[in-house]
Design goal:
heterotrimer; A alpha/beta; B alpha/beta; C alpha/beta; A: TIM Barrel; nine-stranded mixed beta sheet; 26 strands; 23% strand; B: alpha/beta; Barwin-like endoglucanases; six-stranded mixed beta sheet
């Protein structure tokens, strides 16, 4: 038994807003009040300190095929961002694309205990799990990209949505994935022909289905399978001036069905004069506010180096043409694609400045903190180690105003942001970085400190400067054991891989085998990731 | 008399198959102590198919059995392996990669 | 007798996973669908019980591990090299060992597609998986590679003759170009063979880039190829539906090395302004792609890594094995799943005989012949399970088809790590 005593607890899932309470942990879980036995327990004095559940990152690109090419691409990213081997802890390197051990250590040192890998192509899911094995401390799961999947699109075209449903269930089991991920539905397939999609009713070449149909079908499938999370959607037109409009249209197209829109900042622009984008956060936030079926994460821009890496092949190629620099592309047979372009965001760049304020406007215009989460779409809009800086921007309107003054004047002109004075409280931050994402993910033991919750707890010293406060926790506990003290690692146990195993009618297998013979260059029998290949793992139940 | 050529090394099926038998095995040695040369170059030097020649580079030298092949004049091919590597220098131009393809080499009948 | 289906051959980067293996009394009796190069992986496999040796003397595993740990611990500048025929499990341990020791770890990439990695760092890499080639490619270009000798089933499974969803007629649905310095088995399959002068790849690629941009070239021939032929190739590339270039040692090993590859990568990137075009490096060893992946996710860099300062540093030319050995900078070596005494230039290979060398390999090789400690290990994909990465970076789980009497690379390397004196103290900190 371990106790964290006398701290001010922020546990919004259980309605606790800064009450002084003790937190007790045993066997990796929070102990119910009637089972507390302080005899012989190790205790930590949290008097005057802030206690929250461990951070939950709902969207980050940290492991797998795409991330690793990003590492290989950018030796310059690693130099100057190295960590020495210390005792039993691995050395590592990298800033926007850190190595796996360093990634786990940095997240833990920041008080985060659960991280979801945002996009894994099914054909290379095994690679994601191999890197998970070398990602210490945090619990983790992988979202499986499906929005350009040939089997699915054909089933949609032919009106066989029950088969599509069974295929998705099979696919999640085969990849040991956590959730349905959709990236630029139809657009990535069209990129294999040199094209893209621009409207929800554009046709996907060779399949005669539309992005709208893909979204609708996967939304239906998610509900049918009772998956713990909802379809996690990177919409069409990311980065384009029409994105705000098509985001609002996509929200309507979902028609009340539950979904999560990721890195919404990148999809909330409207066209300005010339090549300039403007923030369309007002329309998008309004659409989100009136769609209680939705959760979103912002993908807040942080000035400085970043590496764009998404499954959105055509987007990445456009970015390459705009920036003129290095470009990686990877088309994945029958499934998806993607690309990588290194970038650096500057406040002297007017478009970057608009991107920065768009994200903040979304945070401040979306009313319900339970439905808007803090991310930087790491490493696309910013590096995850800067979450504390984003927290400060949300909590401290003077700091926000000061930073606003430093961005490009063309972005400042006529901007709404200065009028938005709302400041997030600690309770709000606990929601957008812990309780909210955990709830959207359907992780009933994460993001809160009620009895039976996983004993993932972060203790902060309250500081005036919120960036400093959240950058260096006093204590971080993972499964009830201390892993970080004063911002430094004291243990690095292995976390769990979280995955789902929805039921399906096994009759689908024959059709899938046929599809493999026709469309793949690996055997059906060699495709699936088996449980033996995972380390510590947990099957999160479906609710079908 | 020795004549200067360019040497390239590379994979052959025989070398790959021989490798499984073991690099001290006769099939592997036979497969790797071979130099392919154009018929025109063979005439110029005055050697026949199956003749033994000595190849020499600044890095070293070795004896190889000549086999006629469809090669441009001036170009020799030796299968990759220990025999070829007697001829290849360790200068990698700062990349880690030696000059396995494009090494000036002298040839004389052995 | 039992038959194992969907077995993966690990000889080359094709990682053909449709092999059928018949096993009788714990021995491989027959193998189907494997090519002549890969047959030996199964037919000539080395899985018999064999003890490690120290200076030729058979010892038990613990003693060999202790001796290997002693050699590495006492070295000032140990080199760990190879990795390519091991699986993730072994590769990961090799990198961990390097991290713990403060050693240099380099892989066979440095004498294979290392220059390709350098080009990727400079330009990027527009690429795709092999199924995209089979299903979509109507134009295939082989530059400086000879799959008919090195990747024997490539044409039939993935490229020239493979039938795919948009290429139902296989060969007839494609145009094949081969660029090389001499006719080969591969050039004989081509619709067009461009024979260029040794060492002129860069000029020819540059010329193609100019032609693709619609610029004129003030010459009649470049590198022995007529500009007329190059113009025609440029037009074909721009107007195809989905083009794929496969490239190999002809670019990485010739004068210019990574600069040659960077020129090809730039050409492919620019073709994407006109159509869709990709490039796939023909990875040679069965799991050299895995070496790149594992070393990159653990250190940040794909080869030539030094941990001497306590953190990973990248240094092609400095920390690459040929250079370190030729300059006499390594004073001990652990060679995993590769045979540098056979494949390195003499000046580097000789050094391995002059320093204490440890070898982990299933079969007899020339490096074991000069080593102080030799561990005959299990073969991933024959008598041990593990993961390997295909040339297009698809990870495939290898099966074990016969029982093993040997430790795996993973087990031996873990044993060495544990036997290092400082390791015990380090463990306390973490657990």
């Amino acid at each position: 038994m371990r106790g964290i005593l006398g701290g001010r607890v922020y546990d919004p899932a259980n309605g606790i807003d800064g009450e002084v309470r003790d937190i007790w942990m045993r066997d990796g879980r929070i102990v119910p009040a009637d089972e507390i036995d302080p005899e012989g327990a190790e205790t930590f004095d949290a008097t005057g300190l802030v206690v929250m559940p461990g951070g939950v990152d709902i969207h980050s690109h940290i492991v797998g095929a795409k991330v690793n090419v990003g590492r290989k691409l950018r030796p310059e990213d690693h130099r100057g961002s190295e960590r020495k081997r210390k005792g039993g802890y691995w050395s590592g390197s990298g800033y926007t694309v850190p190595t796996t051990h360093l990634t786990g250590y940095l997240y833990a040192e920041m008080g985060y205990t659960t991280v979801m890998e945002a996009a894994t192509a099914p054909l290379v899911a095994r690679h994601t799990h191999e890197e998970f094995a070398d990602l210490p401390v945090v619990d983790k799961g992988a979202f499986i990209t499906m929005g350009n999947n040939h089997f699915l699109m054909r089933a949609i075209k032919e009106g066989r949505r029950e088969e599509a449903r069974d295929y998705v269930a099979w696919l999640l089991r085969a990849t040991k994935g956590y959730a349905i991920k959709i990236v630029n539905p139809g657009g990535v397939e069209n990129w294999k022909w040199g094209g893209n999609v621009e409207e929800l009713d554009d046709e996907v070449i060779g399949f005669e289905v539309t992005p709208r149909q893909i979204l609708e079908t996967l939304g239906w499938i998610n509900d049918e399978l009772g998956l713990p999370h909802v379809p996690h959607i990177h919409g069409i037109n990311l980065g384009r001036g029409r994105s705000g409009r098509t985001t609002v249209e996509s929200i309507r197209a979902l028609n009340g069905r539950r979904a999560h829109l990721c890195h919404l900042q990148f999809l909330s622009y409207k066209a300005g004069a010339g090549a300039m984008h403007l923030s369309d956060a007002v329309s998008v936030a309004e659409a989100v506010n009136t769609a209680p079926n939705l959760t979103v994460d912002v993908g807040q821009l942080v000035f400085g180096p970043a590496t764009t890496m998404t499954s959105d092949g055509p987007l990445q190629h456009n970015l390459h043409n705009t920036m003129g620099g290095r470009w990686v592309n990877d088309d994945v047979e029958s499934e998806t694609g993607g690309g990588i372009v290194p970038v650096s965001y500057e406040p002297t760049n007017p478009i970057n400045s608009v991107m920065w304020l768009t994200g903040l406007e979304l945070f401040l215009l979306i009313d319900d903190p339970w439905r808007v989460y803090l991310t930087t779409d790491h490493p696309n809009a910013g590096v995850f180690v800067h979450y504390p800086q984003v927290i400060k921007l949300l909590m401290d309107s003077a700091y926000r105003a000061e930073t606003f003054e430093g961005i490009h004047r063309r972005a400042r002109k006529g901007a709404l942001l200065p009028e938005l004075k709302r400041e997030y409280s600690l309770y709000d931050i606990a929601i957008v970085t812990r309780a909210g994402p955990a709830r959207s993910l359907g992780l009933s033991r994460k993001g809160h400190l009620g009895p039976g919750a996983d004993a993932d707890v972060t203790v902060y010293e309250e500081k005036e400067d919120k960036e400093e406060m959240f950058a260096r926790p006093r204590y971080v506990f993972k499964d009830g054991g201390l892993v970080v003290r004063d911002g430094e690692l004291v243990a690095a146990p292995q976390g769990r891989t979280l995955h789902v195993a929805p039921s399906f009618d096994s009759a689908i297998e024959e059709r899938i085998r046929e599809h493999f013979r026709e469309a793949y260059t690996v055997s059906f029998e060699n495709y699936s990731v088996s449980e033996e290949e995972l380390g510590r793992n947990e099957t999160v139940p479906c609710d079908a | 008399m020795s004549v200067e050529f360019q040497l390239i090394t590379g994979r052959t099926r025989e070398q790959a198959i021989g490798l499984h038998k073991g690099k001290s095995s006769q099939p592997y040695r036979d497969a790797t102590h071979v130099v392919e040369m154009s018929g025109q170059d063979m005439s110029q030097i005055g050697i026949d198919e199956g003749a033994r020649v000595r190849l020499r580079t600044p890095a070293g030298s070795g004896e190889f059995v000549v086999r006629e092949a469809d090669l441009p004049t001036g170009l020799l091919f030796v299968p990759m392996g220990a025999a070829a590597n007697d001829l290849i220098g360790a200068d990698t131009a700062g990349t880690g990669m030696p000059s396995f393809k494009g090494q000036p080499v002298e040839v004389e009948p052995a | 007798m039992s038959t194992h289906e969907h077995v993966t051959c690990t000889f080359c980067g094709c990682l053909c996973d449709d092999i059928s293996v018949e096993v009788e009394d714990g021995h491989i009796a027959a193998v189907k669908r494997v090519c002549a190069n890969g047959r030996g992986v199964f037919a000539e496999h080395c899985s018999d019980a064999r003890r490690p040796t120290v200076e030729g003397r058979e010892v038990d595993l613990e003693e060999a591990i202790a001796e290997a740990a002693r050699i590495l611990d006492q070295a000032d500048s140990p080199l760990i090299y190879g990795l390519s025929s091991s699986a993730t499990e072994g590769q990961r341990k090799a990198v961990e060992l390097a991290d713990v020791l403060g050693a240099v770890v380099d892989t066979t990439s440095s004498v294979c597609h290392g220059p390709t990695g350098l080009a990727l760092q400079e330009i990027g890499e527009p690429s795709c998986t092999l199924g995209e080639v089979r299903n979509r490619a109507d134009l295939i270009l082989f530059w400086g590679c000879n799959p008919s000798a090195s990747h024997v089933r490539h044409f039939g499974r993935y490229s020239v003759t493979a039938k795919g969803t948009l290429t139902p007629r296989g060969r007839q649905d494609r145009t094949v170009y081969v660029v090389d310095v001499r006719p080969t088995g591969t050039s004989k399959t081509a619709d067009h063979f461009l024979q260029l002068r040794v060492g002129s790849d860069y000029e020819v690629l540059s010329t193609l880039r100019l032609l693709v941009r619609g610029e004129s070239v003030p010459a009649e021939e470049v590198g022995g190829v007529s500009v007329a032929e190059l113009s025609e190739l440029a037009e074909r590339m721009k107007s195809c539906r989905f083009g794929v270039a496969f490239m190999g040692m002809g670019l990485t090993m010739s004068a210019g090395r990574n600069v040659n590859v960077a020129e090809l990568f730039s050409l492919v990137a620019e073709l994407n302004d006109h159509t869709r075009f990709s490039v796939i490096p023909m990875r040679g060893h069965g799991n050299v792609a895995g070496s790149d992946q594992v070393l990159t996710w653990l250190s940040g860099y794909p080869f030539a890594v030094s941990y001497a300062r306590g953190y990973p540093q990248f240094g092609p030319g400095e920390f690459t094995a040929v250079d370190m050995l030729a300059r006499g900078e390594a004073d001990a070596a652990l060679i995993l799943a590769s045979d540098p005494v056979a494949h390195f230039p003499r000046a580097a290979a000789e050094r391995l005989a002059a320093i204490p060398t440890i070898v982990l390999d299933p079969c007899e090789n020339l490096t074991a012949g000069v080593a102080r400690v030799v561990f005959p290990t299990a073969t991933y994909g024959v008598d041990a399970v593990g993961t390997a990465y295909r040339m297009d970076n698809v990870a495939i789980r290898l099966r074990a088809v016969v029982p093993t009497e040997r430790p795996t690379d993973e087990q031996v390397l873990e044993g060495i790590i544990q036997a290092l004196p400082e390791r015990a103290a380090q463990l306390e900190a973490v657990t």
